[in-house]
Write a structure and sequence with these properties.
Interacts with the extracellular domain of FZD8 and LRP6. It however does not form a ternary complex with FZD8 and LRP6. Interacts with WNT1. Binds heparin. Interacts with LGR4, LGR5 and LGR6. The chain is built from two helices and 16 strands. It has 243 residues and is α+β, with helices and mostly antiparallel strands.
Length: 243
């Protein structure tokens, strides 16, 4: 055994030193040096810590440091997350985004500028004035459109979503809704009244006829039958005129 090496290493170390920690790692683990004051200690990890990226070689797997402005990286020249104050663009950390791009303070990335987009105008509405479509000659008509894409911070702002213009219509009188409704109500009441009157009259007629019929039947039942009396002329004896 080498004088600087120890037996019975722990923490995934293949070989280790009492002073420097791990000297090599078991298969699939990454070797990284961690600074402790003025001393560096070797450790073996399953993945590289933040600020490092992993490289695999036949004899050893190592964790190497990312660039100073990079928080996490895939390789030394390709950053995946920048440190505070820098914006990520194409694997690089920049203090200012290139032309045509804008800084996204939420994701800390340089993103494309998005301009506002609006739909087509709707057809013009009917000509109105104070919410009515009659009783005037000059009014207004409007049309609207919707926003289909909101802009980013540096994108072109959205245009107006409604337009109004003057319009002229042929003057026509407005039908008084209250009067018309009142007339309809009166007609309906009158019709119901006439129907009720006819119904009452028919009921009275039927009741009178039924009463007369019942009275007639009662009279026939209570009146005694008249007996037939012989004719006086038939009962008198014949006068003998021979004497």
């Amino acid at each position: 055994v080498h004088p600087n090496e120890s037996q019975g290493c722990q923490g995934g170390c293949a070989t280790c030193s009492d002073y420097n920690g791990c000297l090599s790692c078991k298969p699939k683990l990454f070797f990284v040096l961690e600074r402790t004051g003025m001393k560096q200690i070797g450790v073996c990890l399953s993945s590289c810590p933040s600020g490092y990226y992993g490289t695999r070689y036949p004899d050893i797997n190592k964790c190497a440091k990312c660039k100073a402005d990079c928080d996490t990286c895939f390789t030394r020249n390709f950053c995946t997350k920048c440190k505070s104050g820098f914006y990520l663009y194409s694997g690089k950390c920049l203090e200012k985004c290139p032309d045509g791009l804008e800084a996204n303070n939420h994701t800390m990335e340089c993103t494309s500028i998005v301009h506002c987009e609006a739909s087509e105008w709707s057809p013009w509405s009917p000509c109105t004035k104070k919410g009515k479509t009659c009783g005037f000659k000059r009014g207004n008509e409007v049309r609207v459109r919707e926003i289909v894409q909101h802009p980013s911070a540096r994108g072109n702002p959205c245009p107006a979503t409604s337009e109004s213009r003057k319009c002229i219509v042929q003057r026509k009188r407005c039908q008084k809704e209250g009067k018309g409704k009142k007339n309809r109500e009166e007609k309906r009441k009158k019709s119901n009244k006439d129907e009720s009157k006819e119904t009452r009259q028919e009921s009275k007629g039927r009741a009178a006829r039924r009463q007369n019929r019942e009275q007639s039947e009662n009279n026939n039942k209570t009146q005694p039958k008249k007996r037939k009396t012989p004719n006086k002329e038939q009962t008198l004896a014949p006068i003998d005129t021979a004497h």
